[in-house]
Amino acid sequence: MRPVLLRVESPPTLAELERLAASAVGAGFDGLDLEIVIDNHSGLFWPSSTAQVIALSYACRSVSLAREAGAIAGVLFACDACDTRAKVLSVAIGAVSRTPEEDGRCFQRYQDALNFAYELLHALRLEAEAKGVALALEAPSAGSLISPVELRELIDAANSAAVGACLDVARIRQLGAPPAEWIETLGARVQAIRLSGACSPKEAAATLGACLDAVPLDRPLIADRMT
């Protein structure tokens, strides 16, 4: 059975994380997708074996490759050191925006975002391989990574089975594209699929139907909320 996870934002305490994990298991989910926030060091703790943290997610807060690669490498190290059972770390890169007040947090050009994604995968692919945690670019992004063919080429250029994509179904639909097209184009490069909105594990598994056959069975579906 394909694992179905519940996404949770980093809580301030381990006790709260344990509570969220127990609720997810009680609702039938297989584990958690835990959002990692580096700035205040929250999220760098893990629940007991009652619930598995099968996936992690991290949103870049700058366009500095050195800063973000360092932060992500730290998360990969923590995964290994703490034996979290995490199998995939999804990474959302910064948005593309020409608004002056967004300088330092957003890319000014589409090509800048693509270059950042390319360099990030190359900088971290060996670390991801060593830690046994796949690195997945969240796509589509805000203003970039809007083509499955372009994304496939970006992933293939990294030349590592430890990199891939975390597809956001809601954003794909906003582009006017069928999610099945993205899934079939990327195939085994899909490391996780994010489903926006509330759903039960059974509903999540039925959402995409037969197109999921192109994705290995161990790659998780992630629900934003429980029904």
Task: Note down, in words, how this protein is organized.
With 227 residues, the protein is of the alpha/beta class. It has 7 helices and 8 strands. It has an 8-stranded parallel β-barrel with strand order 1-2-3-4-5-6-7-8, surrounded by 5 helices. Helix 2 (65-82) links the parallel strand 3 and strand 4. The longest helix has 22 residues, at 110-131. The radius of gyration is 17 Å and the shape is globular.
The fraction of residues in strands falls at 15-25%
The low-confidence parts are none
Summarize the main sheet.
8 strands, parallel, barrel
Q: Residue share in helices?
A: 25-40%
Termini gap: 21 Å
Order of helices and strands: EHEEHEHEHEHHEHE
Number of strands: 8
Helical stretch tally: 7
Main-sheet strand order equals: 1-2-3-4-5-6-7-8
- Gross morphology is globular
Radius of gyration: 17 Å
Structural class: alpha/beta
Average pLDDT figure: 87
